[in-house]
Amino acid sequence: MQQLANEVRKLRSKFILSEAEMIDTAKKFQRAMQAGREGKGSSLKMLPAFLAKPTGNEKGVYLAVDLGGTNVRVMIIELKGKGNYKILDRHAFPLKNSQKSYDFTSETSSAAALFGYIAERIKSMVAPNSFYPLGFTFSFPSRQTAVNQAVLIKWTKEIKTPGVEGEDVSKILAGALDDKNLHQVVPRAIINDTVGTLLTASYRDPCTDIGSICGTGHNSCYVEPQALTSGEVINMESGNFNELPFTSYDTRLDKQSDIPGEQCLEKMVSGKYIGELTRIILQDFIKQNLILNNNQSDIFFSPYMIKAEDISLFLADESSELTGIFQWLQNVCGASGALLEERITLRTIASIVVTRSAQLVAASYFGVLQHIDPRLERKHSIAIDGSLYEFTPGYAAKLEVTLKNLLKEKSALVTLKLTKDGSGIGAAVAAALGDKGQLND
Ligand code: BGC
Predict the structure, then answer these.
(1) Domains 2-43+207-418 and 50-203+422-433 share a fold
(2) Which residue's CA is minimally distant from atom 8 of ligand 1?
(3) Whose C-alpha lies nearest to ligand 1, atom 9?
(4) Domain 2-43+207-418: which CATH class?
(5) Contact yes or no for 39/48 (Cβ under 8 A)
(6) Which of 56, 103, 198, 211 sits CB 3.0–4.6 Å from 83 for a disulfide?
């Protein structure tokens, strides 16, 4: 057991960042923002959203479609002005369903099948004789030339549908709506989910100038204060940031992923990958006979078998005997009789991975804050949406404490806010802004 304790200690020192390392990462992040803005080589794409923040007085009924992972969400939202809104109807539709044997996210699907399905789902929710301006949240790196045009640069989050990369996604959606005779649905704006989150929060709170997703994927956007494009929202695609303290485990995860060398920050922090990182570490510990000797369960030996939900289960288990983890090992992995030390190790590894995630995200926020307000003189709200932030036990608190420690005596100026459904509601706000023709050419 002494050797196990030593290995856990080594793992912790490889993963957990010191304050100096976080500040260094924040500086690199800030430099990468500047380089990206100037069109110099940078892992941050710094994509203009062709939108500025709302006034809070936008009004009307809008259709919001949110495509960001393995579900498409459709909402009908009434913006009431003065920062108020009401969700009139909402449904989430899975893009893959093993029982009904379809998967619109796989390489065997197509753009026509995926967008045809989305149009069909929209049809199931709209009235034939009403008019619906549409805001479309498309949560993948896309280059925009106007508020209602966006060309997908590359799929992320292991989505593989052919025929979409390099295409204008708003055109594909408009074509699919046409095919279904949905002429009452008129696309007005296409946005990233981080932008949606920022718009939703700033509809109510004008101090909001950073929007972020900590969910299956990770990314942030901000409001650019500098001269020429003052007030414009920039989608940084910060999940692609790559000047980071990688461990050998990160390298292993990256190599086996769909897009090696890309989305490096996302692969170290987001919900799609924290389970996988934990699995890779556990596999290593099992192979070294440190824990769960000779356990050959598929869970530890096949990619992506440990999910963010499992990580939440480990971290939520606060019982003295870690009975939740005991049952998980027994029922899911067939590992009966795991020792308490082994269960503690499982929980500790998950906690190390999650803590580093919060540290790296905090460092990136610190970098953005220094870009937009170098002397930290104003109030800032950071709007955050996503399952990792909302549901992982302790994650939101860790992120906040870490950022506040970096901000030191300025910490009271910065507020972090869960912005539930931000990516969807923001699509309605964007459609309202698009209606007004804001920054759209
Ligand atoms: C995508 C971003 C998105 C983020 C959160 C990343 O994989 O590249 O565009 O904002 O996931 O959904």
Answers:
(1) no
(2) 140
(3) 140
(4) alpha beta
(5) no
(6) 56
Nearest protein Cα to ligand 1, atom 12 = 217
Q: Tell which one of 67, 71, 140 to mutate to probe ligand 1, the residue whose CB is within 8 A of the most ligand atoms.
A: 140
Quick one: tokens of 140? 């993948």
Does residue 314 contact residue 325 with C-beta atoms inside 8 Å? yes
pTM of the entire predicted model: 0.95
DSSP state, 146?
E
Q: Whose CA is nearest to atom 2 of ligand 1?
A: 140
Cβ < 6 A, ligand 1 pocket = 68, 139-141, 156-157, 192-194, 213, 215, 217-219, 237, 239, 266
Radius of gyration over every alpha carbon of the chain, rounded to an integer in angstroms: 22
Window from 94-103, 197-206, 379-388 with minimum mean pLDDT:
94-103
What ligand 1 atom has the least distance to the C-alpha of 140? 9
Q: What are the DSSP calls for 262-273, one per residue?
A: SSHHHHHHSHHH
**Class of the CATH domain delimited by 50-203+422-433:** alpha beta
Helix (H) or strand (E) holding 136: strand 132-138
Calpha distance 428→405 (Å, rounded): 36
- Using a pLDDT cut of 70, give the percent of the chain over it: 97
Q: Whose CA is nearest to atom 11 of ligand 1?
A: 217
Domain coordinates of the chain in residue numbers? 2-43+207-418, 50-203+422-433
**Alpha carbon of 121 to ligand 1 centroid (Å):** 23
The sign one gets for the Cα dihedral 390, 124, 430, 77 is: negative
